[in-house]
Design goal:
about 500 residues; Aconitase, domain 3; five-stranded parallel beta sheet; 17 strands; about 30% helix; disordered N terminus; lyase; Aconitase/3-isopropylmalate dehydratase large subunit alpha/beta/alpha domain-containing protein; metal ion binding; 3-isopropylmalate dehydratase activity
Length: about 500
């Protein structure tokens, strides 16, 4: 393809005829970034490009097959006119993220293979976020952050969200918290792009209509040096969720329902695309919850079509041009699943697997020792607002220790500043205090991955815990004999009030 052809023309030629896209994609809309560190205009260009003078076939190629969203994104990133599931392609990476657990290993591989004095392919496309083992006295955990800091100074990495003062996270203006939520809040998640990270829950970013997946340290080291990754194109399973969302359900219930339906291997190396009227009604944080846990079903990535909700969230967060893509009406899907969300009930995942689904009301006799609300999956602002809603409705105090770990500094501030709807102006922190919960902790991954023994809320003894996190394998939150019931923030809060696994409808209806 001629280098003189513009990027917009390449995208238009590569992905679909305008007639097909007109049915699948919304009309092009221009958005401008708001104030903040990125302030130049942001243009959103839909793949359904406006009419233009025809180009010779030699310049534009031809469209032979319709494609899914994931196939389109990878086709554009590999400069291919079309792709089919199973093909292996080299793709250009838009963003590479790593953190304190995998960052040192990734850096070591990069230096070994490219040389001690090698430079990363693009210092503005590498995002490094310490978040896992932060507030601990463990020397090895602290050393990992030191390694990240030294590397970022050496490479002049633009987006390094450092933390130096562990005694007071608020004294660290650059520190953010959990990488997946921070990526979204800082504008690194953009429709149509490829985002890779050294963490399995990088798929969280698929909520923005981009291809996002976790990779290993070796692959990440190669991306650091070249900006490219070899990926196999996954087939797509489409999940159509329609119906009005009941007031006692959250996105966590939806994804646990889906994983329970297809099993932890039901989407192995497949893309999971979420569409339908229910999905369109969800805010961005709830969409993130859905995509975050596709890896618990074996999924390669999860994806939600970008829409006005997406574009509004991104206003003021990024000045980088992005180009949404949408599955063609004639795209081939591996399989379809359809759910009438209005008929679903609150669910949990019993120990020790995310697909060990049960209705929350069926587990009412399970006595618990604690409740944990936090993580990339369940520690966002909307998650805490949901928990506060249950505590507010009950007017009671919790009967078991209830730990609150905001995902990021911004979430922590929201807990102390945003009024909870229907509370008469009370904030989440006030409601949590009145309910007898622990004071919200410093933002980090906390006990989700266990961590050193002095990690806040880590299970150092065998306990039964209702948690808004994403995995309940043996030892996941600390003790190998601990039992973890995965649940929505509604169900977690309701369970905290009774000391048993509890259906939130007991307080919300």
């Amino acid at each position: 393809m001629s280098s003189s052809v513009s990027a917009a023309a390449k995208a238009s030629a590569a992905f679909a005829h305008k007639k097909e896209l007109a049915a699948a994609a919304p009309a092009p809309t221009q958005h401008r970034a708001g104030s903040g560190r990125r302030s130049k205009p942001c243009r959103v260009r839909a793949v359904a490009s406006p009419a233009r003078a025809p180009r010779a076939p030699a310049s534009t190629g031809s469209v032979k097959t319709a494609m899914t969203m994931t196939e389109k994104i990878l086709a554009r990133a590999s400069e291919r006119a079309g792709l089919e599931p199973g093909e292996n392609v080299w793709v250009d990476v838009d963003v590479l993220m790593t953190h304190d657990v995998c960052g040192p290993g990734t850096i070591g591989i990069f230096k070994k293979e490219f040389g001690e004095d090698a430079k990363v392919w693009d210092r503005e496309k590498v995002v490094i976020i310490p978040d896992h083992y932060i507030f601990t006295n463990d020397e090895r955990a602290n050393r990992n952050v030191d390694i990240l800091r030294d590397f970022c100074m050496e490479q002049n990495i633009k987006y390094f969200y450092d933390i130096k003062d562990l005694s007071n996270f608020k004294a660290n203006p650059d520190y953010k918290g959990v990488c997946h939520v921070a990526l979204a809040q800082e504008g690194h998640c953009r429709p149509g792009e490829v985002l890779l990270g050294t963490d399995s829950h990088t798929c969280n970013a698929g909520a923005f209509g981009q291809f996002a997946t976790g990779i290993g340290n070796t692959d990440a080291g190669f991306v650091l040096g070249t900006g490219k990754a070899l990926l196999k194109v996954p087939p797509t399973i489409r999940f159509v969720l329609d119906g009005e969302m009941p007031p006692y359900l959250l996105a966590k219930d939806l994804i646990l329902q889906i994983i329970g339906e297809i099993s932890v291997s039901g989407a192995t190396y497949k893309s999971m695309e979420f569409v339908g009227s229910t999905i369109e009604s969800l805010n961005m944080e709830e969409r993130m919850t859905l995509c975050n846990m596709v890896v618990e079903a074996g999924g390669k990535n999860g994806v939600v079509p970008a829409d006005e909700t997406t574009f509004k969230y991104l206003e003021g967060k990024t000045s980088v041009d992005y180009e949404p893509v949408y599955s063609d009406a004639q795209a081939r899907f591996f399989s379809d699943y359809r759910f009438d969300v209005s008929k679903l009930e609150p669910v949990v995942a019993k120990p020790h697997s995310p697909d060990n689904r049960a209705l929350a009301r069926e587990c009412k006799d399970v006595k618990i020792d604690r409740v944990y609300i936090g993580s990339c999956t369940g520690g966002k602002t909307e998650d805490f607002l949901a928990a506060a809603k249950v505590f507010l409705a009950s007017g009671k105090k919790v009967k078991v220790p209830t730990f609150l770990v905001p995902a990021t500094q911004k979430v922590w501030m929201d807990l102390y500043s945003l009024p909870v709807p229907g509370s008469g102006g009370k904030t989440c922190s006030q409601i949590f205090e009145e309910a007898g919960c622990d004071t919200p902790a410093s933002p980090s991954c906390g006990a989700c991955l266990g961590g050193p023994r002095d990690t806040y809320a880590r299970m150092n003894e065998p306990m039964v815990c209702v948690s808004t996190t994403n995995r309940n394998f043996p030892g996941r939150m600390g003790h190998k004999e601990g039992q973890i019931y995965l649940a929505s923030p509604y169900t977690a809060a309701a369970s905290a009030l009774t000391g048993y696994v509890t259906d939130p409808r007991d307080f919300l209806m």
